[in-house]
Every structure is written in C-alpha cells, then in structure tokens.
Specification:
Elements (H helix, E strand, L loop, with lengths): L3 E7 L2 E8 L8 E5 L10 H4 L6 E6 L15 H14 L4 E6 L1 H12 L4 E7 L25 E2 L2 H8 L10 H10 L1 E3 L6 E3 L3 H9 L7 H5 L6 E5 L28 E5 L14 H10 L1
Parallel strand pairs: 3-4, 3-5, 5-6, 6-10, 10-11
Antiparallel strand pairs: 1-2, 2-4, 7-9, 8-9
Helix pairs in contact: 2-3, 4-5
Length: 285
C-alpha cells in the first residue's frame, strides 16, 4: 500500500511525512525517524513486513522532501518530532529512531512522556559525556559528495558496491535511491534530496546537544537500544562500520533493555536496516 504524503508547517520549516493506515484507539502508532543522509522512505522495507498498522515516517528537516536548511543545532530534530506528535495528536506512540533519528526520538519522548508508549533506538548517536570535541571550521568530507545523477538507477548502480551502501538490504538500497533524489532545479537530471552542504552541517554539529543526556532520564516509557560493534581506536571520520553510541547509555534510561551486536555483525550506523533489526522491530509490535 502506498502511503499518504503530507506537509506540515512547523515554525520556520515545512516538513514532509508519509502515513500508512489510520490511527485507532486500540493500537499503537509507529513514528519512524531516519539517520543522517537518509529519508522517510528508507523504512519502506520494514513497513511492508508489518501488516495492517498505523505508521508515520518523517523526512527530517534537511532530508527528503522536507525543507533543507543548513543545520546549526541538533535540538531542532527533536523539536520537529514534538511538533509532529502535537499537530497530528498522536498517542500510544512506539518511536523508532535510527542514528540521528534515535537521538531526536529520545528528545521527543522526554518532552511528551504522555504520548510515547515505547522506544526502539538503533545506534542513537548519544555519546559519552566527555566525548564532546570542539567544532572546527574544516569542511566535512560529505560536503564533497557527488550531487548530480542522470537517474535514480545511476545512483543505485554507483553505490551498490561501495561502503557503507554495500551493506544495505537490496530493498532498502532501491528505496534509498528511488526516493533520495529530487529533480535538479536547472532541469538537468537529479540532485540529492539531502544536499551535501546540509549533510555536512549535520555531521559537524553532532555534538551540539549535550542536554540529550538530561532528556534520557526524563523518558518514562520502556526503551530498547540496539548497538553495532565497538569502534576501533583509530576509527576514521567516514568509517560507518561500528557504533558511535556510548556503551553506558542504557544506564541513563529509567526503563531499558540493551542489545549489543557481536563483533563482525552487520553494521547499523548508516547501513540501512538489517534482518536482525527488522526482527527486533516486528518483535516490538
């Protein structure tokens, strides 16, 4: 079933979201938030496996069909999710967030504890309290990403064998490419829906929300955290094969469960949705 596409104006930004099914008082609503550089339709492969339910997947600001401003502070992502929950009057929310989306979902659940019934956080990019390096003025490598393609098929073919995209489930890679481009303003092919300058600004500001550790302690609902393997000491800036999440993060949530991927397990950070994640999501239902 194809989703209904909706637009919401929240403050200074217009957000796009996709809705499957309709809310009912006797069942949960699943609110899905993606990782940096992704978009709402990266969840399609999971949603196809869920059966009849109410799902809202969001193009976070800077991504997909939402407005794409340069990002100066990560708190805006959580504030946007709060605005969506309020505007749509969502209740009994199971919030599922991957990477940056998990960070934002934590903030939203802390702000609206009466609206959230459960969280599943997949490597939510909430780091240790002392892991807050100062920002510098160097350009992030993602600012130099190839930004123009003749078609979604060209992008998919280009990424198919390249890390981290080579780890994507084939369905997720197809959805990522199909919905991850916009027609170029000059009419010549397509450009990335998350512009390279915007994506670079998100990575560069990833330590701007230290209050997220205060938010974790205000989350009232049960929380399940899934992490990838531990990063090596010499992890490079563009290595997405290990977890950025603070190993002790689980201790910050009053009600929690922790699942740690074994060494060599499929990467979760910016690598689409693995079969294991899909199973965990279905179990959550």
């Amino acid at each position: 079933m194809e989703p209904t596409e909706r637009r919401l104006r929240l403050g200074d930004v217009t957000l796009c979201l996709f809705e499957w099914g309709a809310p009912r008082p006797d069942r949960a609503t699943y609110l899905l938030a993606h990782a940096t550089g992704f978009h709402a339709r990266c969840w399609d492969a999971v949603i196809r496996r869920l059966g009849a339910c109410h799902v809202v997947a969001v193009d976070l600001r800077g991504h997909g069909r939402s407005d794409t401003p340069v990002i100066r502070h990560w708190k805006v992502f959580g504030e946007d999710l709060v605005g969506i929950v309020d505007e749509l009057d969502l209740g009994q929310v199971t919030g599922v967030g991957h990477s940056m989306g998990g960070h934002a979902m934590t903030q939203a659940a802390a702000r609206r504890p009466d609206r959230f019934a459960r969280l599943l956080l997949v490597d939510p990019v909430i780091v240790a309290p002392d892991d807050r390096p100062p920002l510098d003025d160097e350009e992030h490598p993602t600012a130099r990403r190839k930004n123009r393609f003749r078609s979604p098929e060209e992008m998919i073919d280009r990424f198919r064998e390249r890390p981290p995209y080579a780890a994507f489930h084939p369905e997720v890679l197809q959805d990522y490419g199909t919905h991850g481009l916009r027609p170029a303003p000059d009419g010549d092919g397509f450009v990335l829906a998350c512009p390279p300058a915007t994506e670079a600004s998100i990575y560069r500001t990833s330590r701007t929300n230290p209050d997220i550790l205060v938010a974790t302690r205000a989350v009232a609902c049960p929380v399940e955290i899934v992490r990838a393997k531990e990063p090596p000491p010499d992890r490079s800036l563009m290595d997405f094969s290990s977890s950025p999440t603070w190993p002790q993060l689980v201790s910050q949530f009053p009600r929690r469960q922790f699942e740690d991927n074994a060494e060599g397990a499929p990467t979760l950070e910016d690598a689409g949705l693995t079969a294991k994640q899909e199973a965990l999501f279905v179990d959550l239902l």
